[in-house]
Amino acid sequence: MRIISHRGASGYAPENTLKAFRLAVEMGSEDFEFDVHQTKDGILVVHHDFDLAHTALRKERIADLTWAELKKINVAKHYKADTAFQHVPRLEEVLDVIGPRAGWLNFEVKNDGNIYPGIEDKVLAFLGSKPGLLEKSVVSSFDNGTLKRFRERSPEVKLAYLGHGLNTVLLLPALKKAKAVGAVNFHLALRIAFKLNVSRIKKAGFRVCVYTVNTKRDALRMKKIGVDGIFTNHPDIMGKWQLKG
Ligand code: G3P
Ligand code: CA
User: Fold this and answer.
1) N or C: which end of the chain has fewer CB within 10 A?
2) Domain range spanning residue 101?
3) Could you tell me the pTM of the whole model?
4) 6: annotated active-site residue
5) How far is the CA of 74 from the centre of ligand 1 (A)?
6) Consecutive H or E run containing 24
7) d(Cα 173, Cα 134) in Å, to the nearest integer?
8) pLDDT at residue 245, rounded to an integer
């Protein structure tokens, strides 16, 4: 089972910052997840929310800021244990830190309602810019239109389906949508990661990765029910429980 560091080692450092990614590498992570957005002037950056309210305690949206404006803002303000300045990193800065170590990378493209027109072309160009990067990368999105546009533009890119507010009843239509875009992975919320659901997804031909798993009890249960990977904010402690393999 893959142990995927979620937004870096975000249990110990401000999420999605270079500090969190460096720490994940130091902790031995080889599998990484992060969230991709685009600035007003078209730069790909890594941050969870569309705005800075949670991380920087400011209301601006990434879509309304240029990279020059964004890089001056401290997105560690929310992280009480360590508020030292951290900027929203550019995608390439994150890859410089984790890329050499990475065996598997999940680019979660946040593009609800196509807020970032053209982001699919930019991400695909990025994936094609370094040898071997496309092969070890999976692109996911909660926005099905975004997944469709990725597939239209690239027959090769590996896709992962994510569904907002899924439940057991909505799983079947979600599996159909995932098949329609040619996804290889299905990323499932821990809330509905039960044996029956995981078996259904696997029977439909997908690998299943579950978010976000931060306790030993849940991690061991995921392994038992055949989950292929878990996203965790604590990649160090997960490593100790012989979850790999
Ligand atoms: O990609 C898995 C997981 O990160 C999706 O949820 O809200 O943490 O981006 P979220
Ligand atoms: Ca994410």
Assistant:
1) C
2) 2-243
3) 0.97
4) yes
5) 22
6) helix 18-26
7) 28
8) 65
